[in-house]
Amino acid sequence: MENNIVALLEKVNNEILASESTSHINEVRIKYIGRTGLLTNMLKELKNLPSQERPTVGKFLNEARITIENLISNKLAELIVYEQKKKEESELLDISLSLPSFKRGVLHPLSIVKSEIIDIFTGLGFSIEDGPEIELSKYNFELLNIPTDHPSRAFCDSFYISDNILLRTQTSGIQARVMEKTVPPIKIICPGKVYRPDDDATHSPMFQQIEGLYVDKNVSLADLKHILELFAKKFFTESTKVRFRPSYFPFTEPSVEVDLSCAICGGAGCSLCKGTGWLELLGAGVVNPIVLDNCGISSSIYNGYAFGIGIERATMVKYGIPDMRILFDGDVRYIDQFR
Ligand code: PHE
After folding, report:
1. What is the DSSP letter of 275?
2. Whose CA is nearest to atom 5 of ligand 1?
3. Rounded to 5 degrees, what are φ and ψ at 218?
4. What are the strands of the beta sheet with 165-167, ordered from one edge?
5. Secondary structure class of 283 (helix, strand, coil)
6. N vs C: which end of the chain shows fewer Cβ within 10 Å?
7. Dihedral over Cα of 215, 218, 221, 224: its sign
8. Ligand 1 centroid – CA 307 distance (Å)
9. What's the pTM?
């Protein structure tokens, strides 16, 4: 019996050593120590042995069983690692394979300029305010001191939805809304789309503005010039100069048109500035006291300045774009140049 067990152990050992897969090692386990395995059966037959032989043979069989179990679990652990490694190797990606080419999108120049302007003014302490594109004429005109007979109120100059509701023609309506519900100081910029029925190389029925408003005590035209100079230097170059020309807006008094020295020729005159050395960029002024009072802010205590920048205009000036319509064409070949 003991010789049989030794022979069996040797056979098992050889089979385990020769095993190359976890499934084969499982077969070996079933064959020898499974419920009807060869060694298990020998253990079951112990009871038929003469009682004086039973303890030694039993001990021998049990030791053989433990040896087999250990051999199997060691080999199994080895094979699991080996199989996992082989699996990983077969799954390796071939990263040398070239992918089908794809084109990464770029930001539209209007988006670039809009976020640049927003960044500059938020960096100067202005916060962003939003308002409705479909606006009441009260906010678009009345509170802003635009009288009923003002040319921009004529039906042909605005997209009306009803007698007193229209697509806003300027983002100044947001300023009126903010002034109505806020106690100064107010320091805001209002970016957004506006609508006017113009359509040519320098006008579009929809365009975007960023208007700024600062209301506090003792605000002057000098503060306006200072903030616009800071803006111009950041938007163009450190040497950019700002020029004020007298103008007229019903909501500011005095009103100015603001020109920046041409970033291309530095003021000497070129095709971008049409030989003048200056680029017209925005409208601005000291907030008309009537507007402050209309919006519930006492003009005897507070004053302020306001400015309005056209984003399309700023983009054209910055990049020397002669025709606004190209910005709305959606021609990817053109937009791609701003990569
Ligand atoms: N709202 C004016 C426009 O649309 C611009 C502007 C804003 C002018 C604020 C002065 C002050 O043309």
Report:
1. T
2. 308
3. 60, 40
4. 134-136, 165-167, 160-162
5. strand
6. C
7. negative
8. 6
9. 0.70
